[in-house]
Write a structure and sequence with these properties.
It is a single chain. The protein is α+β, with helices and mostly antiparallel strands. Helix 1 packs across helix 3, helix 2 crosses helix 3 and helix 5 crosses helix 7. The protein has 9 helices and 5 strands. The strands form 2 sheets. The chain has a 3-stranded antiparallel sheet with strand order 3-5-4. The protein folds into 2 domains: about 80 residues, Winged helix-like DNA-binding domain superfamily/Winged helix DNA-binding domain (Arc Repressor Mutant, subunit A), CATH 1.10.10.10; about 90 residues, Orthogonal Bundle (Arc Repressor Mutant, subunit A), CATH 1.10.10.10. The N and C termini lie far apart (about 55 Å).
């Protein structure tokens, strides 16, 4: 059965185009205001549309989410120019998590989550996988949670000689960081 491309499908396509990281169906539904069954139908519309020989992209499931990516048969040709660029893109959530680690290291997952107000598991995993943060020991409290810090790769990418070279936080941001950490 041929599915029609609707304005809702176009909205989901635009969302996927703008996202740097895979997005799950629940998040797509929340952002677009569509019901989950409608999101599933839109994704099927896009799968069918991109399956044709006249499309160079496809929907790919990665890490529990969906992302627009070049079709495998074109990636070998494009990888040299675009591979590093795509690997370097970080979502706003990933950048926020990275900033917390950079300014407050060593910091635990729980401290990051307290500051951000949301789960940090996926962002920490992404940043570790990209070599931007690493385990920096264990905190000397019950449970001995892992602490995270930045890597040499982080310093190179952001062209910093050391963490001391990070831009200074504005007073409001510094206070927000401190209040969140003191409430632990």
């Amino acid at each position: 059965m041929e599915l029609n491309l609707t304005s809702e499908t176009a909205l989901v396509e635009a969302l996927l185009y703008l996202e740097c990281d895979p997005v799950d169906e629940e998040t797509i539904a929340r952002i677009t205001g569509l019901a989950k069954p409608a999101v599933e139908l839109c994704l099927e519309n896009l799968r069918q549309r991109f399956s044709g020989a006249d499309s160079g992209i496809e929907l790919v499931k990665l890490g529990g989410g969906i992302i627009l990516a070049p079709k495998k048969e074109y990636w070998d040709t494009l990888r040299e120019r675009y591979g590093k660029k795509n690997e370097a893109k970080l979502s706003r959530a990933a950048m926020e998590t990275l900033a917390i680690v950079a300014y407050k290291q060593p910091v635990t997952r729980g401290e990051i989550e307290h500051l951000r107000g949301v789960s940090a598991d996926n962002m920490i995993r992404l940043l570790v996988d990209r070599g931007l943060i690493k385990e920096a020991g264990k905190k000397d409290i019950p449970g001995h949670p892992v602490q995270y810090g930045t890597t040499k790769e982080f310093l190179q990418i952001f062209r910093l000689a050391s963490i001391a070279d990070l831009p200074k936080l504005e007073a409001g941001e510094e206070a927000r960081f401190e209040l969140a950490m003191e409430n632990e």
